[in-house]
Design a protein that fits this description.
Elements: H1 2-7, E1 12-15, H2 19-23, E2 31-32, H3 42-46, E3 52-56, H4 60-71, E4 76-81, H5 82-90
Parallel strand pairs: 1-2, 1-3, 3-4
Length: 92
């Protein structure tokens, strides 16, 4: 399911790593909203295209983000590492 969403460019890819980590490399078309900023940026997130595909370095922080945002009733998926998202995007 999540791989199909990524390949079909459905939803919004949100990278929850720090800005410095994000600048070091990120998935194509992803946006950076650091994990600690999620509570103050929920309204901004709600204005983005759902579902929200969350990624980070290894899946830990995106898992936390998934838990938090899903508790608010938002449709989210934990995609794990941004490198995995990048790989899925590269598949034809």
């Amino acid at each position: 399911m999540i791989q199909q969403l990524i390949r079909e460019k459905k939803g919004t890819i949100i990278d929850v790593r720090t800005p410095a980590e994000f600048m070091g490399g990120n998935a194509v078309d992803s946006i950076n909203i650091p994990l600690q900023e999620l509570p103050s940026r929920v309204d901004e997130i709600k204005n983005l295209e759902a579902p929200y595909i969350l990624c980070c370095a290894s899946g830990g922080r995106s898992g936390q983000a998934h838990h938090y945002l899903s508790q608010l009733g938002l449709a989210t998926y934990n995609a794990g590492s941004w490198l995995d998202v990048n790989y899925i995007q590269s598949l034809k």
